[in-house]
Every structure is written in structure tokens, then in C-alpha cells.
Amino acid sequence: MPSFNQSIFHPAVFFLTGIPGFETYHAWISIPFCCLYATAISGNSMILFVIITESSLHEPMFYFLSMLSFTDLGLCLSTLVTMVGIFWFNSREISLDACIGQMFFIHGFTFMESSVLLAMAFDRFVAICNPLRYATILTNSRIIKVGLVIVFRGTTALVPLLLLLKHLSFCRSHILHHSYCFHPDVMKLSCTDTKVNSAFGLAIVISTAALDLVLILLSYVLIIHSVLSIASLEERKKALGTCVSHISAVAIFYIPMISLSLVHRFGKHAPPLVHTLIANIYLLIPPVMNPIIYSVKTKQIRKALLKIFLFKQI
């Protein structure tokens, strides 16, 4: 167990936190965490596999779903090493460079997932509000361009943000609140002025995740308006039924993210356990739940998965 005497801190070393107050039980606590990681990795890998191998799923809606599964896999793998290190080997030290590298992937995949959810909302908007032009609007070439924009948008702004962080001085306690590096958490440990970092970070969040959420909500206002104009009640239910999976994915992504942001901004006196639990929910629940939601609610995915499992049994 490392001593946290401030005088021995190296300026480029931080200490990650497992579950505060339950350090002696980390080996046991790692069991449910490992189950969640295994579920997330296997579930999203299976979704990717069926979309790639099943020609019937080579449609815009499922291409966007494969992007969602890819970003969820990226989020899981970005924190897996540090999580295992803490719970199994009590390895809590992480260098500033490694921390910045991990933040690049965590925040990059987070912003990419937000963009994917926006693209999926646009997909549902076109499918319901303009179905006759669906195939001509969402062509394969346009979907590829959307994918490239998502990657570019999710990563480009992070480079200057993390470079700004690298030039800060850290002379306070180097103990982070989470089992992974999170930009606001690291920035709080600096003893130099972080106004530029805070302003730039807020600008990135507003121009990506916040803007995406507003546009997603706007798309559903337009979808609901279009659905209400349908005379048949059955057709209304059918149209809205195609959006259930996406609405669920949006909720389980944005609610934990907003909760974590609020805790970091206003929860200075909140118990460390609250920070840790919300941080783990933010990273693990969406990758775990998205494959389950789409497997249960999407008929084509469910059929493709059953086809694979039944074939294996034969």
C-alpha cells in the first residue's frame, strides 16, 4: 500500500482509487466488475459480428448500431487495464503521460458515442418522416462519411485540451477519485490557474455532447409531430416502437454522464464513494445495457443472434 505523504509525490505520478472504504474487499468486489466487463465486451462483439456477417443487416440503422457497439467496446477497453490493476494487484500508480493517454481514449470514445446517438436519431427521423427518400438519403457512401466525421469530431478537439493539461503543475494531493483518469478530476489537482483549461473543456462539452443532446431532442419533437399526423393508431405504435431502443440508449448514456458532471461541479463535499459509483456507472452501464436493449427490442438482431446460437448447437 503506497504512502500518500505529499512530500514524496513525484509531479508526474497519480494514484487511482478503487472503492473507498472497501479496499480489503477489492478481490471480491472485482467479481461483479469482471462480470460487467465480460458482458459488455462479449455483447458488443456479438452485435458487431452479426452485423458484419449477416447480409440482411447491411442497412443504415444497423451500420450506426455497429458504430455504437464499437465505441462501447472502446470505452470498456480504455479502463480495463487500470481497473484490473487496482482490484487484483493494488497497482494504483499511473504516470501523467499514461493518464493523458487514457483520457484521450475515454473522452474520445464518449464524444464519438454521443455523435453516433445523434446519427441514429437522424436515421429514425428520416425513416419515419421521409421514408420514401430513406434509401437515397442514407447511402453507403454517406454513412462512411458520417463515420469519419464522428471519429474526427470526437478526437480533434481533445488534443489541444490534453496538451494544456500536460503543462499544468501538480503540487496538491495526487489521489484521483476514480479507477481511471477523468479530465475534471485531474485538473482539480493542479496548483496553477486552470481557467483556460476549464473554459476550453466546457466549450468542447457544449459543442459536442450538449449540442448532440439538443439535436436528438429536436429530432424526436419532429418525429412525434410526424407520428401524430398518422391516422391509424396501430401505425403510430409501430412507428414509435422503432425508436424505443434508441431512446433507451440515449437515456442510459446521457443520464450517468450528466450526473457525473454535476457531481464534479457541485459535489465537492460529497462522499468519495458517491464519486466512484457514479463514475463506474457512467463508463460501464451503457456498454453493458446497449447490446441487451438492441438484442431484446430489435427483431432483426434477435433473429440473427438466435440463428448463430442454433447453428452452433447443430
Automatic annotation (TrEMBL):
Q: Where is the G-protein coupled receptors family 1 profile domain?
A: 43-294
Tell me which family the UniProt entry assigns to this protein: Belongs to the G-protein coupled receptor 1 family.
What is the name attached to this protein's record?
A: Olfactory receptor
Please name the source species.
Catagonus wagneri (Chacoan peccary)
Spans through the membrane: 25-50, 62-88, 100-122, 143-165, 199-227, 239-257, 277-296
> Which keywords annotate this record?
Cell membrane, G-protein coupled receptor, Membrane, Olfaction, Receptor, Sensory transduction, Transducer, Transmembrane, Transmembrane helix
One GO biological-process annotation of the entry reads: cellular response to lipid
Q: How does it sit in the membrane?
A: Multi-pass membrane protein
What is the documented function of this protein? Answer: Putative odorant or sperm cell receptor.
* CDD domains to which the protein is assigned, alphabetical: 7tmA_OR51-like
